[in-house]
Amino acid sequence: MLVPKHEVLSKEEAEELLKILGIGKEQLPKIKADDPIVKEIGAKPGDIVKITRKSLTAGDSVFYRLVV
Amino acid sequence: MVPKRISAIKFEVLSPQEIRRMSVVKIITPETYDDDGFPIDGGLMDTRLGVIDPGLRCKTCGGKAGECPGHFGHVELAAPVIHVGYAKMIARLLNGTCSECGRILLKDERKDKFIAEIERRRELNQSYEDVVKEVFRLTKAAKKCPHCGAEQVEVKFDKPTFFYLGEHRLTPKDVREWLEKIPDDDLPAFGINPKATRPEWFVLTVLPVPPVTVRPSIILETGQRSEDDLTHKLVDIIRINQRFMENKEAGAPQQILEDLWELLQYHVTTYIDNEVSGIPPARHRSGRPLKTLAQRLKGKEGRFRGSLSGKRVNFSARTVISPDPCLSINEVGVPMEIAQELTVPIYVTPQNIEIAREFVLRSEHPKANYIVRPDGRRIRVIESNKEELAEKLEPGWIVERQLMDEDIVLFNRQPSLHRMSIMAHYVRVLPYKTFRLNPAVCPPYNADFDGDEMNLHVPQSLEAQAEAKILMAVQEHILSPRFGGPIIGGIHDHISGLYLLTRGEKKFTREEAMELLRSLDISEIPVKDEYTGKEIFSFILPDITLEFKAEICQGCEECKGAECEYDAYVIIENGKLLKGTIDEKAVGAFKGIIIDEIARKYGKERAKKFIDDMTQLAIRIISKLGFTVGIDDEDIPPEAAEQIEEVLKEAENEVNRLIEAYRRGDLEPMPGRSIEETLEMRIMQVLGRARDRAGKIAQRHLGMENAAVIMAVSGARGSMLNLTQMAACIGQQSVRGERISRGYTYTNRTLSHFKPGDLGAEARGFVRSSYKKGLSPVEFFFHAAGGREGLVDTAVRTSQSGYLQRRMINALQDLKVEYDGTVREQTSGALVQFRYGEDGVDPMRSFRGKPVDVKRIIREIVGEVKK
Ligand SMILES: [Mg+2]
Ligand SMILES: [Zn+2]
Ligand SMILES: [Zn+2]
Ligand SMILES: [Zn+2]
What we know:
The complex is a heterodimer of chains A (68) and B (867).
Chain A lengths: L4 E4 L2 H11 L8 E2 L4 H6 L6 E8 L3 E9 L1
Parallel strand pairs in A: 2-4
Antiparallel strand pairs in A: 1-3, 3-4
Chain B lengths: L15 H7 L50 E10 L4 H10 L11 H16 L5 H13 L13 E4 L3 E4 L2 E3 L1 H10 L21 E7 L8 E2 L5 E2 L2 H21 L4 H19 L20 H5 L5 H6 L7 E8 L7 E5 H6 L1 E5 L5 H9 L6 E5 L5 E3 L5 H7 L5 E5 L5 E5 L9 E9 L4 E3 L4 H4 L7 E5 L4 H11 L6 E2 L4 E2 L6 H10 L4 E3 H8 L12 E3 H6 L7 E4 L19 E5 L2 E4 L4 H4 L5 H10 L1 H22 L12 H27 L10 H28 L4 H8 L5 H8 L3 E2 L1 E2 L2 E2 L26 E2 L9 H36 L2 E3 L5 E3 L5 E3 L20 H13 L1
Parallel strand pairs in B: 8-16, 9-15
Antiparallel strand pairs in B: 1-5, 2-3, 3-4, 6-7, 8-17, 10-13, 11-12, 11-13, 14-15, 14-17, 18-19, 20-21, 22-23, 23-24, 25-28, 26-27, 29-30, 30-31
């Protein structure tokens, strides 16, 4: 796999995440809606995608992006 | 009082109404002072604009000089002029809108789409510049107005402030009228908020006049008044403005009016920016270009970089640095002269009033320089008033006493590239004129003593002093966040000294041992007749257990561990050095495994003490045993020189054989290389090997007792390559990683000493001489060519990395690791990382970049079990 795992968060998961971080959606890092991986997993603008990357230092590292 | 907080700052363009509204006086005359030296009403120094002369009062707010903040005035311009700063925007707008109806040159649907996109991006805190750019690109290309159908001609922008519609020159008045026609609804597509800014305001009809406090005049020694550059420029503007008005009223010919208008434009342009291309800068009578508004802000010395990001500070000192191994690493030697000038405030309380009083009464070094009364008055303490002041002293006053031993100060060396470039030291007031520091702290500052200067700052508040002691003290920085290892440690003689002490089984008598340890606070040593160097070193070690290969390890095929014949395998058990030699790997800055272990096991304080003891001990050893390098240390016996000669001759023959093979076409190309490349690589290989062999021969004859060899193998200074070049052979010189081949291109040779096309070793920059022996003229030439590349490289690299550093700092300065482990941008709260560095590890607390040192933990636990 050349592209790390991307998955769309459900509404509840998204809300939970924002609550834990104590931020609004717009403060998340962004990813373009026309990014191939975003189209692939069918995420729409406003969705949050969870990205799980292999990291040299941390094993699995989790990252989130807001689709715009 | 409720403290007021700024919640937001918005940048908008001032409208003419607003300029008039905030103005306290309309300036009507270019005169400044009357014959008696009083400011003229309605002039540029009108006292309603504020006052700078002591004694006068501001007519607007009634404040004296220093109290009055100053107030804006305004000038009514007789004719509109273009604001240079907005000229480019005006050009874009003129090209983006219809010359007839003033509408945007886009169909409404498309315009609305762009506006929606800009709005969406603005909500998401994203840049919408590229959208606006696209709008300007599309509208400029439009040939016909989609609203009224008028044909569009491109408006030519002639820098800095002129516009042409075809052949016809647009006056600022024409431009302003055109911009007035652009409807509010079209503006958002250009990135302009019509509620804040109307485009016609880019053309000035009223000019704000800054308060006199912004442009104070100075009195020269001759008693003459000298006005600020801005005042000069404003005088010019008002003078031309008046001339224009008079001429217009008198009905002067159009040509004269136009010339005056252009002159007015010139003065307003240079008043705003005196460095615009296309027009000559306005000059002072002396010929010096005037410093106008833009020049005050721009550049390194400008308001932003010079006065806000960085400024000159009080309570600081700068002088040359020199080494003092007798100081602790967290001390700094301060010259008496500096200590007498710098002060530390004592906030007088009932508890310390007697101490403060004593300082006021003293007449020698740690004495009070100033006292500050609660009303802010500063009084210099001198012999004649000290008794009176000591008498009056009471809680609430501040006594500024001279810097003395044990004060905390910040010490800094530029360039401040990492946080270890500023560390807190404790003061030791010393004679002479240089700052003194322990050479072990040279690596974090990247300092040496060839004339380096450093800065010192005295924290003034108790909070700042506490922060300095707790966060910035030198021992807090022994472990570097750069690589998770010690950055402070032994250098040069420290390493040579400990190497000499611990190598082999050197014996010292009891007297010698006590002499070596004298300056350390070791109260007793076991009674013995003789001590080995390893035992003496063990006296400064805390209880640690370590095993590692020393720097001098030869990298034997199979490491014999404790039985290593080079004494290169270090074994420390319970604070006793049993085997091995102490060198760079053990105590050096960057590598020092022992320092690392002590800092982790016993903390920074103990690590500091170890470095102090270790450096002291090393210096004493090296002074006692003696250690020196001279030119004859690189002498090699004649038979060694012969062997080297033979090796080099053989290599040159091999090179010639390769060249012959190449000429015959017999050379087998290496995979993926041309024959020429193959030849070059083979030649470089042969010559490189030859130099290495020459170096080995020289090393064999120099022996392990040679001081330069000791320094090279222990890691104290220099390398075996340096030694090879000094004693045996300098080797191939290169430019851009290749043998030197440029020179007389048309005959394909480097110098006229060679035959055309000569590819031999000598003709392409191989230097067979050693530095000791000296270079032949041809060799010297090639050496200079190779050396220059190195110089250019470093010069280019430092300037580039400096600029990169600046941009990195600007980009990263607002990022902070929050308590939940996320990295956030401070102003917008935007998330940058969900876990700092993906793994959440503080690099300073890491073990050489890794989160945990598993080996150490296991050893620690197993060790405990063994006991
Ligand atoms: Mg230097
Ligand atoms: Zn005032
Ligand atoms: Zn039109
Ligand atoms: Zn070995």
